[in-house]
Amino acid sequence: xxxxxxxxxxxxxxxxxxxxxxxxxxxxxxVAACAGPLAGRWQRRGNSSNDQSGQAHSGFNPRWPHLLxxxxxxxxxxxxxxxxNSQSGQERIAIExxxxxxxxxxxxxxxxxxxxxxxxxxxxxxxxxWVTYKGGVYDITEFINMHPGGDKILLAAGxxxxxxxxxxxxxxxxxxxxxxxxxKVGELNPEDRKRQQKVSDASDPYSTDxxxxxxxxxxxAKPFNAEPPPQLLTDSYxxxxxxxxxxxxLPVPQVDPKTYKLEIEGLxxxxxxxxxxxxxxxxxxHTVTAxxxxxxxxxxxxxxxxxxxxxxxxxxAISNAxxxxxxxRDVLLAAGYTPEVAxxxxxxxxxxxxxxVTGTTYGAxxxxxxxxxxxxxxxxxxxxxxxxxPPDHGYPVRAVxxxxxxxxxxxxxxxxxxxxxxxxxHWQQNDYKGFSPSTDWDTVDFKSAPAIxxxxxxxxxxxxxxxxxxxxxxxxxxxxGYAWSGGGREVVRxxxxxxxxxxxxxxxxxxxxxxxxGTAQTPPPPTGQAWAWKLFEATVPLPPEHQxxxxxxxxxxxxxxxxxxxxxxxxxxxxxxxxxxxxxTVKINEDSEE
Amino acid sequence: xxxxxxxxxxxxxxxxxxxxxxxxxxxxxxVAACAGPLAGRWQRRGNSSNDQSGQAHSGFNPRWPHLLxxxxxxxxxxxxxxxxNSQSGQERIAIExxxxxxxxxxxxxxxxxxxxxxxxxxxxxxxxxWVTYKGGVYDITEFINMHPGGDKILLAAGxxxxxxxxxxxxxxxxxxxxxxxxxKVGELNPEDRKRQQKVSDASDPYSTDxxxxxxxxxxxAKPFNAEPPPQLLTDSYxxxxxxxxxxxxLPVPQVDPKTYKLEIEGLxxxxxxxxxxxxxxxxxxHTVTAxxxxxxxxxxxxxxxxxxxxxxxxxxAISNAxxxxxxxRDVLLAAGYTPEVAxxxxxxxxxxxxxxVTGTTYGAxxxxxxxxxxxxxxxxxxxxxxxxxPPDHGYPVRAVxxxxxxxxxxxxxxxxxxxxxxxxxHWQQNDYKGFSPSTDWDTVDFKSAPAIxxxxxxxxxxxxxxxxxxxxxxxxxxxxGYAWSGGGREVVRxxxxxxxxxxxxxxxxxxxxxxxxGTAQTPPPPTGQAWAWKLFEATVPLPPEHQxxxxxxxxxxxxxxxxxxxxxxxxxxxxxxxxxxxxxTVKINEDSEE
Lengths: 594, 594
Description:
The structure is a homodimer.
Chain A: H1 17-35, H2 37-46, H3 68-71, H4 77-87, E1 113-114, H5 116-120, E2 123-124, E3 128-133, E4 136-139, H6 162-167, H7 174-181, E5 184-188, H8 190-199, E6 217-220, E7 225-227, H9 230-233, E8 246-247, E9 261-265, E10 272-275, H10 276-281, E11 286-293, H11 299-303, E12 318-327, H12 328-334, E13 347-355, E14 361-367, H13 368-372, E15 379-384, E16 387-388, E17 398-400, E18 413-419, H14 426-429, E19 458-463, E20 469-471, E21 476-484, E22 491-497, E23 505-506, E24 508-512, E25 515-516, E26 534-541, E27 548-557, E28 582-589
Parallel strand pairs in A: 1-5, 9-18, 20-28
Antiparallel strand pairs in A: 2-3, 3-4, 4-5, 6-7, 7-8, 9-10, 11-12, 12-15, 13-14, 13-18, 15-16, 15-17, 19-21, 21-26, 22-23, 22-27, 24-25, 24-26, 27-28
Helix pairs in contact in A: 1-2, 4-8
């Protein structure tokens, strides 16, 4: 069997209980001699006899001493947790035995079972490169140099392949799976991870936050805020869930879908309560592809003018997904909304189930006219790209308000209130508003500006990346990026320049997964309902006699709004709404001219 | 009587027929000696004996020899027409006797009767300054220096006071009328003007165009395109009809309101025809205050980058009025529109009754979703600022499409077609579209860009005017202007700078006739229905050590779109969508510091 290729030495040792203990004794000294620090780690583990499952497997591949780390994988959550804590400077070895009921059925595979923790320690060539795919663990270190897509493969190191393969559909071929199979070294034990979470410090409100994809660039761990590498962003029209930017204000709440209730208040009939089942069965399932963008996307560029308050987002606090759920309009109508309500009410407030230590929940509101418009496409979404919403994205139900700043797309939605007033939340009243460049923290009056709803026209260059090089011999540079506008305004043109704006090149636009605009089978969105971004690409001749290239882009939407030229005049103390022309500087590598 | 004050010498001579002829002989030599060219003009007139009415009056004020021009006023349309043509280099003396039926009842006033032609020759201090008011003719030359509003009064010279007094409500006081009465020198004979029009060259399709206000700055006479002086624009939240910018593509059609029919096609029920009476009585009268802006507003700034094709508009091809009429939505519903229609149709085409020599009518279309939206406020308007639509603005019925470029607000509306397709007209297909700065007439593909509908955020400075001076001793400068955005997006802030953008001053906004924002009694417009501009004003300290001041403004709307910094990157071959920061340079006058 091909997948046994790596298991010819000591490898592929499937042993039970005491048998494994004996093996560990036998191999430990030799391993310690060649595995360096990993051997030490292994020894500490080896001292423990706390084997929860009693049925785990160990694997050993003599060609990669680091694989020893996997040798004792499966000794259970307690050990792994102790290790994790010792890595973060806490030497406490934890305790709580898992209850029998939480132990999953034994894997029938003869390969060792690894925790995600084990896997994620293998994410470079020194430690080896492990990945997971559909529950299997693969050591692909040897394959790195053979990967047709180059070292982009390293972005998956230590994590799951699925989001990358979703991004690069070329992998959906049988021979790719055959190649992968050759590198299988074990099975992933997700249950261990669950147990680790249970025994982790209960005082940390973030302890139950879900696992995240290792490729994400973390701006804040608690609450979790992270963006994907920009180059990945534009390799796929639809952003895979795992790579979709994460913007949490509070810990991710644990919501039981069986007991979940959505409360609706403020309508003449009185309160209404809907279960997840109600939302899925009583209303038509409506699907919308919509781009969400954080108000703080590209904030780092404002920081380069003058320091602002807020997470230092790059250009990737924006992503695109296909969302499905009940239309808010349909739900409100069923709950008793009539046009007469609009004579008084002006807003629809959303309240999340995520809460801070005082019990205050996240909240925001949108204009009623947006909520009830038959063209507004506001969803109470329960699916993201065809799957249940991931925990980070609002499981089980979130608001998706197409064309509107991310902050109003309230996740883990617990309550909807039709109201005369906007949400009283901090995030509606004293955050997510735009101000003049001359307004500072001494003079700011948050009442003087409207809460951000629709966002302005935006675009940014994802390829080439800042600081990289292009070869002179190529004679041209291919520039890629994204463009989007709020309010359902369709992007109609992106201009790219490499000569400081003397000449502008009109980029080609991609408005679906299928390819260039016009070649897709899908008709263009109706006026005012262009909720999804367009990806752009322009191939531009390299200007002569330049050693450095400043590439700039600007987009235009169908209300012919354009991006401002520069950052300073739109600078604001919260660093939101950063949508000046995007600029990337790259070197021109002259070597290849010789 | 006070109004006789100016009539004490030879003045106030009211004579009939042959009596006047004798007077002319008597005074002519003396007048010729002191009146220069006017005397010659008078002599040519004096040679004619063609006196149509036989009942006109002459007036003479010895203090202003130029008044001789008025001495023979009232000799009828033929003479006046002959004079007009000789002024434009055509010496033809015309002919056609007016029919008895067109002769109006004789004025019972004892003052002379003047043609508008006579009046309009008096529009500077050299020739004297005449104005008309409610049918009276006033020589206000002596009053100019006493006018509390300064020499702005000269903008009314040679024309009617009414639009200016509508603009400056301070004149609505009895004592103002008393002052005016002192300067009365005659009566206006509007019938003469009508007769002049009848005898004018019948081959000129513009011969029946209406009279226009003399203060308008004409960009094109035929078709008539003109804008008001910018400083006037922001003295009134509502632009008086006579000063509202005029943008005609073709001659103004003569439409008989009694036989007027509006045809509606493309709905399942078949064609529907509505009279003006139907529109006024079968549908609720809906009133909307909406700003209209020509796509070419501020085109002159693009010309200063590189020549474009189009009328050289300044900053005042924008105005604000209150429109009343039937809602297009109501009319379409009554004509058989149902939501099912929207499954196929996407556009509503408008066809004007104005046509070129080939019979081609003006046409444009708007998205169906805008036309039928209960929040779209699209009107079939028959009133402008409480009056019947003026001929230049579409009498008897026009489309008013709030938030949408002027070109889609079709005037003299003859037909509406609900359609799968946009209007096939030149103006929809091959004009009024935006392109990249690098697109030229050799490369332009009009199919590649969407027809302009909603316009982007806009603002401009009306005061101080370019090239004027401010006094150093004032220590500050008051900057006024307008700001507006398309698509019902509300202007939320205007920033003004006088130091090149180092510091920005937040202007105060006026969102109604009543005054500053917040002080008005009217509630703010609902989200997405902010159709009217805001006027702004900022008082900014003069920076030291500058002899020249560049004042710049930029506006922000509630989708937080902003204006681009500079013109060149938005330059386009048609010179439309010119909305970069507006810049005005003024001198700082240091004299008053001494």
